[in-house]
Amino acid sequence: MTSAALERATYRVSEQDLEYMVLDKEDLPPEFSGYQQVRVGVLDNENMAAHGFTGSTADRFRQAGRITGYMREFGPTSDMNVFDGFNFVGSTVAHLFDNAESVTGWMQDVFLKDFESNVGESVGEGHQLISVTRLDPTGFFDEAVALKAVQGGPQGVVSSTVIDFRVGRILGVAFTGAVGNYDRLDLTNQLALALERRIVQVVLGSV
After folding, report:
1. Where does residue 144 rank: exposed (0-12), middle (13-18), buried (19+ CB within 10 A)?
2. Rounded-to-integer distance, Cα 31 and Cα 194, Å
3. CA distances from 197 to 3, 5, 37, 64, 183 (A)
4. Which of 31, 29, 10 is nearest to 21 (CA)?
């Protein structure tokens, strides 16, 4: 299937389809074996704004073309030992936009720009965003961007690796978090490629 044909197919996707795009436990890379689901559900613009950077509003996100999203997040069980380098979260999100151009705009003007413009700022709960580094994800069907963000707080430093990619008017996001300052691009890339495959399957009606 061509990129244009796949993009056209995403206009048949409804908000209800997003739930079937995010990854289940059995879809995760082996590094998350034994982890448990800790959060799942609809991620509307109000929720996004409430947990976003200072100045985020539901209206801003709606004006950017975002309709809604669905997320599923996995974390460690209580009997796991947390140590420097430990991966404490792995999650995937599928966002639905008005059109493909809005997804591209979001990746550049909201995702990358908001992270980079908030370096040095408070990000809630006593945490400060220390640094943001752009990364180069590989193997995706269409556009993809990535970054590593390092933040410090009362319990020390944690790092997040995030990949955003486009499938027509759908934005896929894969996210991992590690204790300490660690680049998890390879692991996050695995997660994101599995998410991309699942999104395409749902779009094409094979799930």
Report:
1. buried
2. 14
3. 14, 16, 21, 25, 23
4. 10
Is 114 strand, coil or helix? helix
Could you report the per-residue pLDDT of 76-130, keeping only the tens digit for each? 999 999 999 999 999 999 999 999 999 999 999 999 999 999 999 998 778 999 9
| Distance, CA of 165 to CA of 193 (rounded, Å) | 9
CA distances from 88 to 28, 36, 126, 176 (A): 14, 11, 19, 8
Residues 6 or more apart whose Cβ sits within 8 Å of residue 152: 127, 128, 130, 158
* Locus of tokens 């193997």: 139
pTM of the predicted structure, to 2 decimals:
0.96
In 10 A of CB 88, how many CB atoms?
14
CA angle, 25 as apex, 22 and 29 as ends, to 5°? 95
Spacing of C-alpha 155 from chain mean position: 24
C-alpha–C-alpha distance, residues 20 and 207, integer Å: 8
Structure tokens at 159: 């790092």
Contact between residue 42 and residue 69 where contact means Cβ atoms under 8 Å apart:
yes
